[in-house]
Amino acid sequence: MSESVKTVLPESELPRHWYNINADLPVPLAPVLHPVTHEPVGPDDLAPLFPRAVIEQEMSTERDVDIPEPVRDVYRQWRPSPLYRARRLEKALNTPARIYYKYEGISPAGSHKPNTAVAQAFYNQAEGVKRITTETGAGQWGSSLALAGAMFGLDIEVFMVNVSFHQKPYRRAFMESFGAQCIASPSTLTAAGRAVLAEHPDSTGSLGIAISEAVELAVQRDDTKYALGSVLNHVLLHQTVSGLEAMRQLDMLDDYPDKVIGCTGGGSNFAGIAFPFLGERLRGGPETDFIAVEPASCPTLTKGKFAYDWGDTGHLTPLTKMHTLGSGFVPPGFHAGGLRYHGMAPQISHLTDLGYIQPRSYGQLECFAAGLAFARAEGIIPAPEANHAVKATMDEAIACRESGESKALLFNLCGHGHFDMQAYTDYLAGHLKEEETSAAEQSMALAGLPGV
Length: 452
Hints:
Elements: E1 6-7, E2 17-19, H1 43-46, H2 52-59, E3 64-66, H3 69-75, E4 83-85, H4 87-93, E5 98-103, H5 114-126, E6 131-136, H6 140-152, E7 155-161, H7 162-167, H8 169-177, E8 181-185, H9 191-199, H10 207-218, E9 224-226, H11 233-252, E10 259-263, H12 268-282, E11 289-295, H13 300-303, E12 305-310, E13 319-324, H14 346-353, E14 358-362, H15 364-378, H16 386-403, E15 408-413, H17 421-428, H18 439-446
Parallel strand pairs: 5-15, 6-7, 6-9, 7-8, 10-11, 10-15, 11-14
Antiparallel strand pairs: 1-4, 2-3, 4-5, 12-13
InterPro entries: Trp_synth_b-like, Trp_synth_b_CS, Trp_synth_beta/beta-like, TrpB-like_PALP, TrpB-like_PALP_sf
Pfam families: PALP
Keywords: Amino-acid biosynthesis, Aromatic amino acid biosynthesis, Lyase, Pyridoxal phosphate, Tryptophan biosynthesis
């Protein structure tokens, strides 16, 4: 086996197709339902929100979906991204495990999110859209869409969850540098925002609230569409470029993962690294394990209910069957802002329900500790979200040390932490605490599920 640390593909091997796991599901996804009629939605129902090409991808069951050349041209600025062998971390842990990480932090926005932002901006521009509204939690998605909007000449309006708006001012500055407008959510610009503020004037906000605000503005103008950075099928589809590259890179090293690990908030980065390998398993390939890691304070997969729910707090979106804590759930303001969503991608929820994905959760303090241990070994400071995958990978590596097994562990280092240094400052100073939600709060939110 090669002793290399970094495996890099040439631009000529940038994938030409995204992988659509819908083609290989043993049981089809439950249909998306209209929020009023509870009948399955069709393309016309989604047309006010998304361009036609995106709607087609959302509903597609084709295994390979072409990546348009203009999108590949932009991808080439940072793709293919490197695959690292974490040799120094292996040594620090004294483990026989072979630890690999796909590093998505080299993108211009510092995360995996441009993989879908660029694609969605392209499809919107091709259909004549002038303006896109969206939401963002930690700011990685808003940063990525701002970047993509500048590349394709689109106006971008971002509703940023209020607590992150104040925690992460440099993410806001990044968006504004590319010409996007960044608004703290809940805001007074929308009926959805005003309703929340009337009841909770000091609301920390949530992704569900921010989605409601973005959707409300999108449907008011014919030249405007809405873009989502996670959860939906087409977003997860676009992210598979990462996993497809990783398959080729591991093939060059004559290795294959025993376990694939990713953090999960809405599910896009986990799906991006895991779905190509999971598709192999569904088609009779190796029995790889898939571990989806979420924060203990927003435990969608581990404690949520697999049921139909709205994707937003204001109940403007269609109903999807997913693991959910309830659309009214407002998570505490822990620092992994990209993981503060009440629901989970329907595809990931479905595959978890079928037993193909193993969910687990961790508190933020143990994740920050793992992130710093990783940084001191590998020289990369992970984003707070990615620390969840780092923690799980280190636990698996320690289990290999105890059992003497040499397993291959692959995780997605989905972004760097350069915009999150205040979080690390707070952790090192002992100012961070575990943010918890009570069973009563979760039960109250789940009581509001639609009667489907």
